[in-house]
Amino acid sequence: LDILRQEGAHDVAGFIDSDADLQGRRVDGAEVLGSPQALSGMKSAGIDGAIVAVGDCTARRMLFEMAQRCGLELISAVHPSANLAGNAVLGRGVVVAAGALVCAHCRIGDAAILNTGCIVDHETVVGPACHICPGAPIAGRVSIGAGPFIGIGATVIQRVHIGPQATVGAGAVVLQDVAAWTTVVGVPAREIQRQ
User: Fold this and answer.
1) Are 30 and 22 in contact (CB under 8 A)?
2) Do the Cβ atoms of 130 and 61 come closer than 8 Å?
3) Which residues have a Cβ under 8 Å from the Cβ of 70 and sit 6 or more positions away?
4) How far apart are CA 102 and CA 112, in angstroms?
5) Is there a contact between 4 and 77 (Cβ–Cβ < 8 Å)?
6) Which of 10, 105, 122, 161 is catalytic?
7) What are the phi and psi torsion angles at 102 (to 5°)?
8) Residue 122 annotated in active site
9) 3-state SS assignment for residue 113
10) Which bin fits 61, alpha (ψ -120 to 50), beta or left (φ > 0)?
């Protein structure tokens, strides 16, 4: 909400939230309009677009797809203090938070979150529904699959591949590829779990 208000490009109608206790209440002056099922009635209520800003990568992808099926335009929100290279490409429904840096020739997939102060360096590809947490530097020519969660302050060196649905723990230093559905932690990062 803060990013959209500072950006000034969109009028915010309100929130959708699955927490029944929040529905009908106001958060920072914006009404909680209903549960995710209410998305189906948004177009007829005069609401044309949506952004999904849920931190959980799997839930965000599911809600993104639901909003898309309901005919809503998936908008992006880029904080005014974020710095994006002129040739960086953002997908639909991307959140770029305050102080994030996206360098030359990067491609950011649909529904990704680039959180506060993260760095995505040159020629990196960030897959859809990925979440790069605050302060995480991602070096050049990294490829990140669909849906990984890269924890706060984690570091990923150049030319590494992070597989789909992987998790990189907070503060980890990733020196080699991370397999899909794998959790890595530590310095250097080591695998602790594979689904």
Assistant:
1) no
2) no
3) 39, 40, 42, 43
4) 13
5) yes
6) 122
7) -120, 115
8) yes
9) strand
10) alpha
CA distance 61 to 81: 26
Predicted TM-score (pTM) of the model is 0.93
Tens-of-pLDDT digits for all 195 residues of the chain?
899 988 888 888 889 888 888 888 998 888 898 888 888 988 888 899 999 989 899 999 999 999 999 999 999 999 999 999 999 999 999 999 999 999 999 999 999 999 999 999 999 999 999 999 999 999 999 999 999 999 999 999 999 999 999 999 999 999 999 999 999 999 999 999 887
Residue pair 118/138 in contact by the 8 Å Cβ criterion: yes
In order of 14, 32, 87, the CA distances from 130 in angstroms are 24, 25, 20
Spatial distance between the Cα atoms of 95 and 3, rounded to a whole number of angstroms = 9
3-state secondary structure of 66: helix
Q: Which amino acid is at 85?
A: A
Encoded amino acid at 53, one letter: A
DSSP strand E in 47-163: where? 49-50, 73-74, 77-78, 83-84, 89-90, 95-96, 101-102, 107-108, 113-114, 119-120, 125-126, 131-132, 137-138, 143-144, 149-150, 155-156, 161-162
Q: Which of 155, 164, 167 is nearest to 192 (CA)?
A: 167
